[in-house]
Amino acid sequence: xxxxxxxxxxxxxxxxxxxxxxxxxxxxxxxxxxxxxxxxxxxxxxxxxxxxxxxxxxxxxxxxxxxxxxxxxxxxxxxxxxxxxxxxxxxxxxxxxxxxxxxxxxxxxxxxxxxxxxxxxxxxxxxxxxxxxxxxxxxxxxxxxxxxxxxxxxxxxxxxxxxxxxxxxxxxxxxxxxxxxxxxxxxxxxxxxxxxxxxxxxxxxxxxxxxxxxxxxxxxxxxxxxxxxxxxxxxxxxxxxxxxxxxxxxxxxxxxxxxxxxxxxxxxxxxxxxxxx
Length: 277
Prior knowledge:
With about 280 residues, the chain is mainly alpha-helical. The chain has helices at about 1-15, 15-30, 40-65, 70-90, 95-115, 135-155, 160-185, 195-200, 205-220, 230-250, 255-260, 265-275.
């Protein structure tokens, strides 16, 4: 049992789960726009997610404890190196236009972790995007939107139209809602300088905003030019599932409530679409 627990914890802490979620969300886009399975793009997103998330999460730890790293962190570093190499391989398979977007997203991820922002824009010594008051969730939502919607469509040379714009807005709303349980969970630990949504307006109002965003997320489906019952049904189900997890979130949630279940909602969405297809 201890071995299984360690494997599961490694699965979460090494960002494999969040990478599968981003992989699933990108595949959802391909299905929504009736595009074929794009192995190069999907695997790039998967390995780039592991590389990016581990870089953001463990950069500080590795920087200050590189001579005495815990064994688990050393394993994650090696795994991240492998993922980085795989990411570079699949990046070389992408189209030039796609790589331009990748470069922008990579730069944003870099700024998110590295202290390069002028001090007049921040409230502590970290000097990165993550520490700018109130901006964290929006940066993450934007990156997830562009990586899960923009990358697969650009790589498949899909013409950007009204449906693409609507999908981007939907994806931004969904990712924003998915982050709210994490922000509620971290209320007892986040610095007040971060000015997260729950910190500014409280848990109850945060959930109300989340509900409104989910309503927008679902209703926007009806404004698309290409509308079918599979898309409506899958969107409705994932809206209800997300709503339940949002309402059930609190400051004392279980260890895996957000890190596993909420993070896995995109995987559930993909599974629904694959079953309906």
